[in-house]
Each structure stands twice: as structure tokens, then as C-alpha cells.
Amino acid sequence: MGYITPLLKLSFWFKINPGPLMPMFYWVFLIFFGLLFVASIVCGRIYKKEKDQFVLRFSAKYLKNWLLTASIVGFLLLLFNYERVALLSARFWYGLWTIGFGVWLGFIIKKIRQLPDKKKGLIERAKLNKYLPKKKKK
Q1: pTM over 0.85
Q2: Tens-place pLDDT, residues 67-125
Q3: Closest Cα to residue 39, out of 76, 7, 70?
Q4: Which of 28, 65, 81, 106 is the most buried (most CB within 10 A)?
Q5: Residue 76 Cα distances to 21, 84, 134, angstroms
């Protein structure tokens, strides 16, 4: 319980030159950001391999960029904390990271929910286009 009480104080979050992370939290963050990076690679593979599954393919495309960017920024935060850079190792950056990438993920989820409707529209357009004249090849 002693780990939680500092989290409730503003001086903990807004100290410009905080001490280093505890080793346990450092490794937890390192593993978490590493998993985000591996997940971005998996999403990239899904995007390239799954040509026939529209929703899965484009969900992986949107998530790949989010996962890669989130992991790189997270690794930079850990690097700044490890090197104890005065302003860039402040703990409020982790809160900003969480808020910023949470909002971005919300927009991605909204876009993914619209994919089935977009697929239906593309199918209807393809049915209509087969009756329209095509350009002549020279």
C-alpha cells in the first residue's frame, strides 16, 4: 500500500527532476512497451497476409501505426528516465502519454466500427460498376 500513496500527491507527478523508477516498475514498463512493439509487427504481418478479410486487414493497418508510435514514445520516456534528463524524465509525461494515446485509440476504435458499413458500400459500388462502360485500352 505504500506504493500507492505517492501517486495521489501532485508533487509526485509534477517534480521536474524525479528520482529513478523502481526496478520493478522499470521492467514492467519495458516489457509493456516491448509487447506493444511486437504487436505492431504482428499487425503489419496481418495487413500484408490477409487480403480477403477486409475488416481484419484494415483494423490491423490502423492499429499497427498506433502500436508502433506508442511503443517508440514509451521507450523514449524510459530512456529519459534512465538517463535522468531533468525535464523529460518528469512523471507527468506518462500521464500525457496515457491520455494522448488513449484518445488516439478511441478514434481508431470508432473507425474500426465503421469498417463493416464501408465494406457493404464497396460491394454495392462494385455491383453497380460492372454495368458501367469501361475505358478502352489503346
Answers
A1: no
A2: 999 999 999 988 888 888 777 777 788 888 889 999 999 999 998 888 888 878 878 88
A3: 70
A4: 81
A5: 14, 12, 52
